[in-house]
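Entry 14. Two folds queued back to back today. First construct below, sequence then structure tokens.
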Amino acid sequence: MPRHTLRPQGDFPTAGLIRRLAAIFYDFLLGVALIMVVTLIYQQGILRLIHGGDTLRTMAEAGALDNDPVLASLVLLSLFGFFAKFWTHNGQTLGMQAWGLRIQNADGSAIDLWQALLRFVVSIGSWLFAGLGFIWMLWDKQHRTWHDIYSDSRVVQLPKNVHKK
């Protein structure tokens, strides 16, 4: 499938660390909301239909729902779906739109699903190593994070008059 070119086109500068972290904070809040909705639907919808209300309450009180691998998988897939949709469609999550950032390939096209998966997985690793994958951009000559490098994409700063439209 051919990649679609993102608009506006141009040679934009690489986004700085502070702006990236600000956009990440916005998206973190949206991610928490998504996790809450997925958990509500799973536990109060699906599990309630399967086990019934009384059994579900007993399971919750006994701690049987604390480390549910199905819920963890659903949350992870939902978060990936959220980011992948935004990144592959217009290159911007809602937090990135607010801060005028965009993920793109070197030629200005949108990243594909494989690149989105690489970004998602490697960015988790970036956080798990105390944020080193993000701070890495301070030493990289092209100001790339680990997930920029592994997904062969970059985060750019759009001009102010463009992202407010």
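Second construct, same run, same settings:
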Amino acid sequence: MNASRASATAFIVNSGSSSIKWELIDVESERNLRSGIVERIGESGSAPDHETAMQQILAELDVEHPAVIGHRVVHGGSVFTAATLVTSEVEAAIEKLSALAPLHNPANLAGIRAARAAFPGVPNVAVFDTAFHQTLAPEAYTYAIDVEVAREHGVRRYGFHGTSYQYVSRVAGELLGRDDAKLIVFHLGNGASVAAIDGGRSVETSMGMTPLEGLVMGTRSGDLDAGALFHLGRAGLNLPELDAMLNRRSGLLGLSGSGDMRDVQQGAADGDTAAQLALDVYHHRLRHYLGAYLAQLGGADAIVFTAGVGENSPATRSAAVAGMTGLGISLDESLNAVGSKVARVVSSGDSRIAVLVVPTNEELEIARQAVAVITA
């Protein structure tokens, strides 16, 4: 199948922990032909699960033969370091890696299997979130535990949201007019992470061996003293219970009762003290990582916000950089308050470090990488 033909399309599946986004993209023009999203998956008894949602999407797609089907896969471990053509062996490897990303890899794999069944003979390509962070130096990805245990069990920092960072850092560089920019990029969605990017290369990132480490997220705790788990284990919680709590009942949900930032912000505005505490903890963690990555990079050219919360919540952006004029960071609150779907500057004219909002386009990045695999 010739992916360079004007009529060729790429069907892109981004099956995440709480949503499935899909796009049909014209390969030559990179134009979005059709797209859709199923949100709040699995949040209630009446909500669809991933398999049901995927079947609904495929039934509505109305296309006979895409040139390629590209899939976001969260965890490639040390097995997958680049976009990869899907085979039965690749499926098995992705399934084996699900232990490292229990909220995501099973959902990613469900999308792959449904798409392969719906379009037999059409190549499927897995694009891995972890691949972008293969540039991390050993001192950045190594945990200080017994080195033999770490090597045997693959315990190291992998990092995630790689397709988003790759796309966003490229657009940010274009907006700044340079390809050597030092960027601190906050990808803030239901899953949230931050990366320090130097000239297009990831040098630090907040998520670790799994997507659980780092920032406060919708349902995930982020950073936590490992000793707290030993304490809870001695108190009687078993491993499956701890896993479920930290991945599915923590973060904003655990603190406020809702994992949706919109609900939490509304609750805080209505005087809900639990919601206000959840916001305070969330913002505190953002500022903690911002300061750390400024130090690691030796300064920055821009701070970039992307993904659902990062793109659509002026209050989150404002809280993340509040009081940092001494560090050369100053928002223009009027620009920050304007909603827009285009990449833009929201810092003030005298801010030494630019603050940008760059809408991510993981689907287009996945399409580019998927087409590159089948045309190589």
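Quick look at the second one. The chain has two domains: 9-128, 177-357. The chain is about 40% helix and 15% strand.
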